[in-house]
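Morning!

This is the sequence you dropped in the shared folder:
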Amino acid sequence: MSGSSDRVFLPTFFDRLVGRRLIAVSIWLTIAVAGIYLFIFEPGQSGYFPPCPFRALTGLNCPSCGTARCLHQLLHGNVSAGFKLNPLFVVALPFLIWALVAYTNSAIAGGPPRPANVKPRYVWSLVGLIISFWIFRNTPFYPFPS
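The structure's back. Tokens below.
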């Protein structure tokens, strides 16, 4: 192939920097738009909110059932009502926000993303916690309505 370039198309530092910043901005914009929608429309009462496929098929709650209603309550300042709808999400929310802020700071600073040096026992503990919550919220002993 005459005239073709043998150039390797590796992303440059600038491309990676702009790409990571664009991802961070996109995530924050998506959260803002979703937050406005959740603030205006109450899940289960108005607006378009798809049903949980697991609950539709089995009649049981999954670990994330109630998250949209929980976020709606949290956006209106009703922390206790949000906690009753999905306590695991309310507990996890500060950690999720921290992770997003850390990623955004890394993207803005232009440095490499900090590697997630999480020990496997912590990951498996988190998986066990989620599965335990999943089972517990489908028992008669679960104290909150779903």
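Headline: The first helix runs from residue 13 to 40.

More detail when I'm at my desk.
O.
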